[in-house]
Design a protein that fits this description.
The protein is α/β, with parallel strands linked by helices. The protein has three helices and seven strands. The strands form two sheets. It has a five-stranded parallel sheet. β3 and β4 form a beta hairpin. The longest helix is centred in the N-terminal third of the chain and has 13 residues.
């Protein structure tokens, strides 16, 4: 079963998070929802609070098939997190996918791999 790690920070864009997570789970993908904070609750830009399974501090060292970082105002917290950057570098080194809508292409794109791609910041 494919695995995806979705990391949410305070101020995440709800529609960029909930829709892909829902569609992936409906397709049989194991999506682990993690917060950037120590708690299991995180609130999006429009006030919707989500309950995650874990925090990134509690995630065991593991390479996922894909790491997903929804955009929105909270992306500044993701960029500032050393833990997130380490996860992304591990994914990149392993040749795994990363979907980061609000990040510049900070990782090399390879055919067959998305890399961190997206709009602009």
């Amino acid at each position: 079963m494919p695995t995806v790690l979705a990391i949410l920070a305070e101020g995440f864009e709800e529609i960029e998070a909930i829709t892909p997570i829902d569609l992936l789970r409906r397709a049989g993908v194991k999506v682990t929802l993690a917060t950037l904070s120590d708690g299991k609750h995180v609130t999006g830009r429009s006030g919707l609070t989500m309950h995650a399974e874990t925090s990134i501090a509690a995630i065991p060292a593991h390479v996922y098939d894909c790491v997903f970082l929804p955009g929105g105002p909270g992306v500044k917290h993701l960029r500032a997190s050393q833990q997130v950057l380490e996860i992304l570098h591990t994914q990149n080194a392993a040749g795994r996918m990363m979907e980061c809508p609000d990040w510049r292409n900070e990782f090399n794109r390879t055919p067959g791999r998305m890399g961190c791609i997206g709009r602009s910041i």
